[in-house]
Specification:
The structure is a single chain. The chain is of the alpha+beta class. About 25% of the residues lie in helices and about 35% in strands. Strands 1, 2, 3, 4, 5, 6, 12, 13, 16, 17 and 18 form an eleven-stranded mixed β-sheet that branches. It starts with a strand and ends with a helix.
């Protein structure tokens, strides 16, 4: 299949079951909400070493937030539901509660919840108080500028992690331009996020290594400099750069739509070829076939 001159490889992206939560951060200004969100989502590119994956989902207008102030939506995914509370408590406690003027609310209305404010409240050292707003239980934790308000618990739901595209091009600048444009287009889909810097990855990895103890190592099949050495190279002549775009989402449909939009945009911006990474289909529950996505 082709999109204009760009070849779409007949393959699939293999993705995995994860657990997702949405965090709504508000503040007196969008700048402070954004600062807290950026801090909270730092070092959250891959569960391989970061224990979770997270990124900003979107900005929220003040009329759509719980307290009528500017907001930022953050998505955070973990491999196991049991780990979600610890990741949220760590990151909200250290990066949001510490940020001037912020409050923090649950963004997924689910009966399946994990404690967050209910654990952070102990920072109040006995001065914290709870309050009910409708069905919502909040904690008011005293801090030096006033108080930090946070939901008692946050909703969690099954999610999809590891959807991906591999963008090939004739040189680094063209390939990066196409990949960045694709990433920007994919971020516009609600319910998805791209956990790596600007959404683009240059160091895609494979499972395992020749070195004992390493669970991941460079994906030699896709390294142009190893074209003459790697036994299973996937780099055809004329290709000098490959970038990966990893996409996580709250459901299959949003991930597929993001991948579709990314493929069209990368093709428009000069990608030579678009493929995807998988492990033969035996590891991940979700298989996103590129051609089927484009036909849908």
């Amino acid at each position: 299949m082709k999109i204009k001159k760009t070849e779409i490889v007949d393959t699939f992206a293999e993705a995995f079951e994860m657990w997702g939560s949405r965090v709504i951060i508000t503040a007196d200004t969008l700048g402070w909400a954004r600062a807290a969100a950026q801090s909270m989502t730092g070092f959250a590119t891959s569960v391989i070493r970061c224990k979770c994956e997270a990124a900003v989902e979107c900005e929220i207008a003040r009329e759509d937030t719980p307290d009528g102030r500017p907001g930022i939506s953050v998505l955070l995914f973990t491999m196991a539901k049991d780990n979600m509370s610890a990741r949220l408590v760590d990151r909200i406690g250290q990066c949001v509660m510490t940020c001037p003027t912020t409050a923090c609310y649950n963004g997924i209305p689910s009966e399946d919840t994990v404690p967050v404010g209910g654990r952070l409240r102990y920072f109040g050292d006995g001065y914290q108080i709870s309050k009910k707003v409708g069905d919502r239980k909040l904690w008011r934790i005293p801090v030096m500028e006033g108080e930090f308000v946070v939901d008692d618990s946050f909703g969690v739901q099954p999610a999809v992690g590891g959807g991906n595209l591999l963008i090939y091009g004739p040189n680094r600048s063209t390939t990066l331009r196409a990949s960045l444009a694709a990433a920007d287009a994919m971020k516009e889909i609600s319910g998805v996020f791209l956990p790596f810097p600007q959404g683009v990855v240059r160091s895609g990895s494979k499972v395992g290594s020749k070195y004992k103890g390493l669970i991941a190592s460079t994906n030699d099949e896709y390294c142009p400099t190893l074209r003459g050495f790697a036994p299973k190279t996937q780099i055809p002549d004329g290709i000098e750069a490959v970038y990966e775009i990893v996409v996580d989402g709250l459901d299959e449909e949003s991930v597929a739509e993001a991948m579709k939009r990314g493929m069209h945009t990368a093709a428009e911006k000069g990608a030579t070829l678009i493929s995807a990474g998988n492990y033969g289909g035996d590891l991940g529950k979700y298989h996103f076939h590129l051609n089927k996505i484009l036909e849908g």
